[in-house]
Amino acid sequence: MKSIKILLILLTACHLSALAQKKTDEKLSDPDSSGIVSDKLLPTTSPLLLFDEQSKKEKKKKQKKKERKNIYFGEKTRKGRTRQMLRDQVQHTIFNYTSEQRTVDPYIRDIYWYDQKDKMIRSKDFDPTKGVLLHGPYEKYLNETVVEKGMFYFGTKHGTWLSFDAKSILIDKGHYYEGWPKDSRTTYYDDNNKVIEKITPVEYDLNEGNFYHFYQNGQAAVIGEYKYGEKVGLWTEYWDTKNTTATRKREIQYQNEPFSKNFRPYIRAEWDKDGNLIYRNLASN
Questions:
Q1: Where is the signal peptide (predicted)?
Q2: What pLDDT digit, counting tens, does each position of 224-238 carry?
Q3: Among the three residues 124, 158, 177, which one is the final residue of a domain in this structure?
Q4: Are residues 169 and 267 in the same domain?
Q5: Considering the entire predicted model, what is its pTM?
Q6: Domain residues for 44?
Q7: Closest to 253 (Cα-Cα) out of 272, 273, 231
Q8: Is there a domain that residue 6 lies in?
Q9: Fewer CB under 10 Å: which end of the chain, C or N?
Q10: What single DSSP character describes residue 270?
């Protein structure tokens, strides 16, 4: 009888241990189990000088100091090419890139890089182990006609960008500063325009790109994306944790593509200040 009791105790302990392990595994595999996320949202790289005039002047000086071929903004670059068939036409690009290791700005939506394995240019998920950042002049051709040209600065569009049709007629012109459209609207907490409150990216009078709202201490408060003036994808609100951690407060799901019919935004999940999940829309799973 005693041995049976011991066996039951051992079986119960094993069962409880297995349940605890199962819960742990579920928690680890559940992206919503904790609201605490990467600390890249903390203001270690806060965009306080995005539109600082002195910073612009210094970059212009570096560009003017080009001493020899293939040096742009003080960085030595190499030339690269891509080529592919697009229907019955040949599309190819000529670009410059740098092997300089540089942390990409987490606030910029589109970071352009050359995937050396797949031999193609990408604008998302830069991986320095797989490729290099575009830096310097860029031209895209359709057969022998230039259809796009501009300048990159460590993976971001910089300066004036031009687009042409197949007859070389100018159809588009954009102006950028290190990845930010120059028409972007910025509001500040202070009169000296140094502590940013909101950055709203604007292209051609429409909101286009990543939107940011910051707390006064520089920590991200709200992050979301616009396309053609419409909110798209997940918009995330964050708790003000005084720069100790980056903790999600709420996620709101918008249409994945602009002008989607019959789509109503909804709250996808919510967390408390400690990062504990307090609500999740099960219909979104």
A1: 1-20
A2: 999 999 999 999 999
A3: 177
A4: no
A5: 0.65
A6: 35-48+183-285
A7: 231
A8: no
A9: N
A10: E
